[in-house]
Amino acid sequence: MGIEKHLEEAYLQTTYIVYTKNKEYSLHISEFNEEFMDFCSIKKITKWAIITAYNPYSELCSLNDNEDNNKKLKKIIEIKNFLFFDAEGVPEDDSWSSEKSFFVYNINKEQAIEIGNLFKQNAIVYGSANSTPELLFLV
After folding, report:
1. β-pair type (134-137, 83-90)
2. How many CB atoms lie within 10 A of CB 83?
3. What is the distance between the alpha carbons of residues 39 and 37, in angstroms, rounded to a whole number?
4. Kind and range of the H or E element at 12?
5. Residue 46 and residue 107 in contact, taking contact as beta carbons nearer than 8 Å
């Protein structure tokens, strides 16, 4: 299948916001965020993923469908006993709406990819201790 160039650029320019209990962190692909890394170190978060169920394969869905899909994603995350915070992918421009997501932590890359594939995502964001967030393409 592959990713269209304009979608790849949009994913790379998106701001990924993680909403913790006390603070929100804005993450960008391939950019180191020292404050966020400090938070992960304190919380003993060694690996993580940002996953959404919005707009499978980047096909625009209704808000209702997207929210239903994200509820299913949340349920899977809870059933698998992963810890998580709410997150959101905020595009650089207004040609695409923000996508509610989940910051799932202490999840390995294979598990994150499996969940992303289950919800037909083109890509997920993945990171580990002292690394920059990376975009993992699933298609």
Report:
1. unpaired
2. 14
3. 5
4. helix 5-13
5. no
Tokens of 8: 């790849």
Q: Residue 131: what residue type? A: S
Q: How is residue 98 written in tokens?
A: 């923000």
* Residues constituting the chain: 139
CB 108 within 8 A of CB 47: yes
Q: What's the CA angle centered on 40, arms 88 and 83, to 5 degrees?
A: 60
Model pLDDT for residues 11-34, shown as the tens digit of each residue:
999 999 999 999 999 999 999 999
What is the pTM (predicted TM-score) of this model?
A: 0.96
Rounded mean pLDDT, 30-51: 97
Cα separation of 41 and 39, whole Å? 5
The separation between the first and the last C-alpha atoms of the chain, rounded to the nearest angstrom, is 6
- Burial class for 16, CB neighbours closer than 10 Å (0-12, 13-18, 19+): buried
Pull the structure tokens for residue 66: 């997207």
The pLDDT assigned to 88 comes to 98
pLDDT the model gives residue 126: 98
